[in-house]
Amino acid sequence: MLEELKIVRQLEKLFPVGRDVLTGIGDDCAVLSVGGKILLAAADQVIENIHFTPETSPVAAGKKLLLRNVSDIAAMGGAPRWAILTVAVNGRDEQYVLDFCRGVAEAAALFDVSVIGGDTASLPAKGVVATLTILGEAPPTGAVTRSGAKPGDYLYVTGRIGNSFLSGRHLDFMPRVAEGRFLAEHHLASAMLDVSDGLLLDAARLAKASQVDLLIEPEKVPLHADACAPQAWSDGEDYELIFTSPEKLEKLEDEALVPVSCWGRCVSGSGRLLDRDGKPFQSERLGYEH
Domains of the chain by range and CATH? Predict the structure, then answer.
C-alpha cells in the first residue's frame, strides 16, 4: 500500500510553483491567484472495489465522484464552479459510461457546477477508474487552509459520523458547502478540512499542518444511529467538516446549517493527538491509509 503522506512530502519538493500559487500540494485544494480572483483547484478519483462495489449503480458511483470533489471545495470555504471528468473502464459497455456521467451531471446540478470537458479510455484489466478535477472560487475573506489553527482554538466537527460505507451513505451525502462558506465568511474557522479518511486521521493532519497538538474527546462527536465508537472515529467517508475556531460555538447562527459539536482544544505542540489528560491518544487505527 502506498504511503500517501510520505509521497506528498516528496512531491512538494519535486514540483516547482509560481508566484500565482498561494497554497500548493498538501491541502484539500490548491489556492491560485488568477486575473484578480482567488480560485480553488482539486482532483480526486473513485476506483471500483475501493470507493464503490461492482454492484453499485454507475449513476451512484458518478454522483459520489462529483460530491467528494465538492467536499474539498467546501473544506476551503469556497464555492464549486467547474469540473473536468475522465472515465476509464474495462468490462463495461457504453451505456455504463453514459450512466456514470449522468450521475456526475445530476450531482453537478445540485451545486451549479459546469462539467466542461474530460476524457474516456479503456483499462487493460476489468474495473472502473474515474477522476474529476474541480475548480471553484474562494470566499471574499480568503480560503481556509489546514494550517491556521492556533493554541487556544476549539476543535469542531459538523453533523454526525460513522458507518458510512456499510450504510451506503458514502454514495449519497451532502457536502457541507453552505457550512464551510458560512464559517469562512464570518471568520469563524481558523483551519478546516473534510473527513474523508477518518475523523482521527484527518484531525491529525490538521494538527500536523498547523503545528499544534490537539486535546481530543472523540466520544463527544455525534454518531449516526447505526454507528458505534470507536470504529466510527476511523471509518472515513463521512464528508463532514473538521474545523478549529477561536470562538466557543454552541451552534451556527443560520438555522439552515447542520449542528456543530466541540470535541477538542488546540494546545502548543507539533501535531500530536492527545487525550484529555495530555497523554498520547491511543487508538488501534486512525483511519484509511492510501
Answer: 4-137 (3.30.1330.10), 154-274 (3.90.650.10)
